[in-house]
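Box S1 | Example of a co-folding query
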Amino acid sequence: MICVSIGRTRHKMMILEQRALAEQGAELVELRLDYLSRIPDLNRLIHERPTPVVVTCRRKQDRGRWRWDEDARQKLLRTAIVSEVDYIDLEDDIAGAIPRFGKTKRIVSHHNFDETPDDLESRHAKMAKLDPDIIKIVTMANSPSDCVRMLQLVAESEIPTLGFCMGEFGLPSRLLCGKYGAPFTYATFDGERVMAPGQLPFSAMKNLYRYDHISESTEVFAVLGDPIGHSLSPLLHNRAFQHHDIDAVYLPIRIPRDSFDESLNALNWLGIRGYSVTIPHKSAARNYAHEQDDSVSKIGAANTLYKSADGVWHATNTDCEAAIESVRQGLGEGGTLKGKNCIVLGAGGAARAIVYGLLNAGAFVTIANRTNSKAEQLASELGCQFIRWEHRGKDFRDILINCTPVGMYPEMDNTPFPQNWLGEHTLVFDTIYNPENTLLIKEARERGCKTVSGLEMFIRQAASQFERFTGLTPDLEQLRMTVRKTISPVNYES
Ligand code: NAP
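Box S1 (continued) | Returned holo structure for NAP
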């Protein structure tokens, strides 16, 4: 179950939001009385409540907004209990002074906004002595392993425990706490009203991560990166799981640079079966696996880790095959890369994977990069040509591939290749997918060139990962539509 927190300064808005949430299928609402700008009129808020409620009133010291004195606050909490609200949230330092009464369930809570302390278990044991129906323990996660410790506490607790972590590192615990026995998790009314760091909006919890479907048997997959907040991979994979009716969830997990192995060893407890891997971990992922495809050894980077039934981690690179398939699609029926003259802009991870794929397919490749020495080095490693960045427009090519971020949101009025350098018979492939129609793509179309957008590569690399994770082939058109609906002119966030 998802509990949606509402905090508004006006009673009227609290009531309207609660009704709206009930219509959207919310089953439990937390009324944050401390947000009200006037002394709360509890009866008005709970009289005709459309859903059960948790009544919470946080002090400033707990990052709440209560502006009157502590006596008034405790009086309000007691009144809520006498009024038989469904749940009352009592901080662990006052819970002992407020007795149980009637049917109201007691949530004894503790928050730590700085860290997930080492003494979680002893804190939990002390809270267990305060007559709780539910123990709520919420801490700041400063690493992925903090989340895992918290979920272990939830799993081992005899008293139902709402245990999760705040912050970007804490997100997996908000999504998985139910799998380990937490009676519910918390979400916000919408993305603009986040009341604790890392809270997700109700719509994302319900419709994207399908929290209510997550159970003990749900398999877990994830994308690993830093930053990770704006990755579109959770959208693609969760929609595909839903479409194929698979009992699985796909999470974004932030893994700090330089702690890949340590973090994955901690995450092991969660039994995760497959990871998508993004910047800056593609090279570390390669070394983590027990077995790697030839493409991974040659490219030196993996974007996918998956575990076979015998517990062996495999590394593969689906960027490479996805890019080559996208180019083939752009060339049209019967199009072949063999003998094609290609220029690749950029010498980073994407360029390396794509150059490798192009050479394997029999193309002639020239690399140009802002830092010329890197182009020269990559060309010599993979066995192709390089050209100085300022000379990249010198010859017309059959295929031009942009592997730089130039033109990506928010700098969408940039292009890495001036329009007057484009040959009208050149196929232009921009690996950027946000926006789908970059300036390079638009100018190439004006020039009469065939084009391929990075969206094609993005959905194909995700589709190949999905196949490795589940053994099923997802519908590419459904994936295309899913991303297009999200990447709209008002939502260029990736
Ligand atoms: P990366 O390893 O950081 O490499 C970035 C490359 O872009 C470097 O060669 C860098 O040149 C160059 N560059 C950066 N800023 C530049 C600028 N202002 N002007 C000219 N060149 C510039 O990143 P990556 O992993 O290769 O990713 C590159 C791009 O590929 C991403 O931005 C993304 O849009 C795209 N991509 C798409 C997909 C997909 O599925 N569609 C997948 C992966 C990547 P220096 O060496 O001079 O720094």
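Residues 489-494 have pLDDT under 50 and may be disordered. The domain at 235-316+462-486 is CATH 3.40.50.10860 (Rossmann fold).
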